[in-house]
Amino acid sequence: MGAGKSYWGKQLATHWSLPYFDLDEVIAELEDMPVADIFNTKGEDYFRRKEAETLRALADAHESFLISCGGGTPCFSDTMDFMNGTGITIWLNPSIPLMVERLQRKQYKRPLIQDLGTEELTAFTEKKLAERKPFYEQSQVIISEDEITLGTFDKLISHA
């Protein structure tokens, strides 16, 4: 959360003239309910199965596309291996303070963090990142700067 996946996904899809998908939005549309409601009513295991299934279906249906995945996507169902074998994976890894700043702007929209103060939100972000880092580190391209541009992606992807 707060890494810039959705923002940069949309920007890059336009820049590279590719179809764009936000995996959470696709699942919410398929299930006809918000992701938070899917978690609450059907559980995380159901959501993670649906996530892996939907990602694979999109890959089968499109020769080239850009997708923003939820932060947990690479951590389940061998999804990171699938993504690395199917396309180019990018880990946006900005600083914790920048992620917290971004999260605070729309904190009210995220039930998991809406009641957290700055210190609690920072601790939450650090904990989630630590849990997921072994999966994220398998990405083919890692961008750890806070200040990036479309040119940053062009340069790094040309070498991937």
Could you characterize what this model shows?
Helices cover 57% and strands 8% of the residues. By secondary structure, it is mainly α. It has a single domain (5-142), classed as Rossmann fold (3-Layer(aba) Sandwich), CATH 3.40.50. The strands form 2 sheets. Strands 1-2 form a two-stranded parallel ribbon. Strands 3-4 form a two-stranded parallel sheet. The longest helix is centred in the last third of the chain and has 19 residues, at 118-136. The radius of gyration is 16 Å and the shape is globular. The two termini are 24 Å apart. 18% of the residues are buried.
Strand order of the largest sheet: 1-2
* CATH 2nd-level architecture: 3-Layer(aba) Sandwich
Oligomer: single chain
| Structural domain tally | 1
Q: Sketch the topology as an H/E string, one letter per element.
A: HEHHHEHEHHEH
Report the uncertain regions: none
Mean pLDDT equals: 92
Question: What gyration radius follows from the Cα positions, in whole Å?
Answer: 16 Å
Note the main sheet: 2 strands, parallel
Tell me the number of strands.
4
**Count of DSSP-assigned helices:** 8
By CATH reckoning, the class would read Alpha Beta
CATH third-tier fold name? Rossmann fold
Helix amount: 55-70%
Distance between the termini: 24 Å
CATH superfamily: P-loop containing nucleotide triphosphate hydrolases
**SS-based class:** mainly alpha
Gross morphology is globular
Work out the strand percent: 5-15%
Please describe the topology of this protein.
Elements: H1 5-15, E1 20-22, H2 23-31, H3 35-42, H4 44-61, E2 66-68, H5 79-86, E3 90-92, H6 96-105, H7 118-136, E4 141-143, H8 150-158
Parallel strand pairs: 1-2, 3-4
